Amino acid sequence: MRVHESVPALVRDAATLAGAVIRDAIAARGRANVMFASGASQLEFLKLLVADSAIDWRAVTGFHMDEYVGLAADHPASFRRYMREHLSALVPLAAFHGLQGDAVDPAAEATRYAALLEGHPLDLCCLGIGENGHLAFNDPPSADFDDPLGVKLVRLDDACKAQQVRGGHFATLAEVPPVAMTVTIPALMRARAVLAVAPEARKARPVRDALLGPISPSCPASALRRCPQAVLLLDGASAALLGR
Q1: Which of 30, 39, 157, 240 is least surrounded, with the fewest CB atoms within 10 Å of its CB?
Q2: What is the pLDDT of residues 121-137, one digit of tens each?
Q3: In the chain, where do the E strands start and end?
Q4: 33 by DSSP, 3-state: which?
């Protein structure tokens, strides 16, 4: 865990750490497989990362960790659109593999994406922590630390939906798709390096629960404590409850 005095300092550290992991993977294996997260907490991090001219992006294959079922790739709330606008349209990736949320057969799409991940072991997983403690769309009702699947379909809980509305992705709870695809917790934690970026006061409670509460699916982010290759980056606001 690393606590920074400001969000800009946190973001700079995150981009520095991620860039080093990516460059090391390319130096060791000629390529890097990286999973990226979406959301407000990732924006400034991605801005700095794509500006890193020392990364040979042509050797990087990108993935992302979740998508709403039934949402077209050009929908404003689509995570594929987010990744295109903030990553894949800005750097010359070797490839970017998106979760096809609007696939005719969502279960088959989950299986397809899981197979892609099996064939591309992750060098780095960049993620955030949700206000309900979720990792990707592994919400407290559906999180499974020993999930046999790599990607699965989940029903989003109301706390997760409310976060999407507060984030401006949807106008009302009713507009949030009830089902999503998510990379599972074991698949996320299998990455050679895991970088969790969790700034701001709204993350203070889930951060406290993740670090000081039981290691349990009741707070999916507590799985980070079973992941020795994980680094959690906080600012003063998100770390505020750790001493209480």
Answers
A1: 30
A2: 999 999 999 999 999 99
A3: 2-4, 32-36, 60-64, 66-68, 95-97, 124-127, 151-155, 179-183, 193-197, 230-235
A4: strand
At 203-216, the pLDDT tens digits run: 999 999 999 999 99
Taking the alpha carbons of 121, 11, 137, 175 in that order, is the dihedral positive or negative?
Answer: negative
Sheet holding 151-155, edge to edge: 66-68, 179-183, 151-155
* pLDDT over threshold 80, residue 167: no
Beginning with the edge strand found earlier in the chain, give each strand of the sheet holding 2-4 in spatial order: 2-4, 230-235, 193-197, 124-127, 32-36, 60-64, 95-97
* All domains of the chain in start order, with CATH: 2-235 (3.40.50.1360)
- pTM of the full predicted structure? 0.94
Quick one: CA torsion of 110, 118, 43, 23, rounded to 10 degrees?
A: -170
Within 8 A by CB and 6+ apart from 170, the residues are: 77, 161, 164, 176
Placement of tokens 């090391």 in the chain: 24
Residue 167 tokens read as: 């984030």
Q: Is 138 helix (H, G, I), strand (E, B) or coil?
A: strand
Number of H helices, E strands in the chain: 7, 10
CA dihedral 10, 11, 13, 14 (to 10 degrees): 110
